[in-house]
Amino acid sequence: MQTHPGAALRTARQQRGETLEAVAARAGLSAAFLSRLERGEASTSISSLARLASALEVPLERLFAPAAPAPAQAGYVLRRGRDESGFENDAYRYKPLAGGLPHQAASVFELHYPPGRGEELGYYDHEGEEVLYILEGRLDFMLAGRRLRLEAGDCLQFDARQPHYACNPGKAPARLLMIVAGHRPGLPVAPSFARHAAPPSPRRKRHEPSHAKAIPRRPGAGRPARR
Questions:
Q1: Alpha-carbon distances, residue 191 vs 42, 52, 58, 73, 83 (angstroms)
Q2: What is the pLDDT of residues 150-175, one digit of tens each?
Q3: Looking at residue 198, what is its pLDDT?
Q4: Residue 192 CA: distances (Å) to CA of 24, 52, 124, 201
Q5: For 221, phi and psi rounded to 5 degrees?
Q6: Which pLDDT belongs to residue 32?
Q7: Sheet with 129-136: strands ordered across
Q8: Phi, psi of 149 (to 5 degrees)
Q9: DSSP 129-175
Q10: Nearest Cα to 52, choosing from 27, 85, 28, 75?
């Protein structure tokens, strides 16, 4: 059933004539991790794959088994329910449901989270926005340090440049629909936040006063010395 995206990543990178270091740097990942991912020795999240797809200027769906092509004049792509292409990592498995149009604006996935999994992936971020619709079970969704409890029937839309991840705190599997929109290959990829790190605190504005104490000048300091 599962198709690892490693081979597609390597093919896309080699077609561009780029090194592991160059692609990994643009995606905010390490070259060592990308090397293991290409060899099928590591798993990753949709968010990291979105950043890699943008760095390689390819549609996200190209990293999975392609759907059967529709006639060019049809203007649609049909995926049957029996199509089992997808990928499974240590935290969840996902299956592409849409993609393949010449100028598509969104990617759609079905995700399955086993009980007690997901938190080990830590925070990720990428360009664009996401919509999550919970089909079964429940999820705890971490968004820029906020924990949101999502249950069947709930729908969440958010700016994907915020650090985020999901985990399943329940005892039953969770299943959801994920739509990634605004992910256009070739645009600059947002830098990744450190895994498991809290979002950065806002910088102090320039007009805010500094709390540093001024050092008093000595009498005569700065005057030219008398000869």
A1: 21, 12, 19, 39, 34
A2: 999 999 999 988 999 889 998 999 99
A3: 37
A4: 11, 12, 6, 15
A5: -65, 135
A6: 94
A7: 87-88, 93-98, 106-113, 174-181, 129-136, 155-159
A8: -85, 120
A9: EEEEEEEESEEEEEETTEEEEEETT-EEEEETTS-EEEE--SSS-EE
A10: 27
How is 188-218 classified by DSSP, letter by letter?
A: PPPPPPPTTPPPPPPPPPTTSPP-SPPPPPP
Place of tokens 């990928």: 87
Look at residue 85 in the predicted model and tell me its pLDDT: 67
Per-residue pLDDT of 166-217, as tens digits, reads 899 989 999 999 998 875 554 444 333 333 333 333 333 333 333 333 334 4
Residue 140 near residue 149, CB atoms below 8 Å: yes
Predicted structure pTM score: 0.64
Strand 155-159 with 146-151, pairing:
unpaired
What does the alpha-carbon distance between residue 41 and residue 35 come to, in Å, rounded to a whole number? 9
Mean pLDDT, all residues of the chain:
75
- The amino acid sitting at 211 is H
Q: CB–CB of 142/117 below 8 Å? A: no
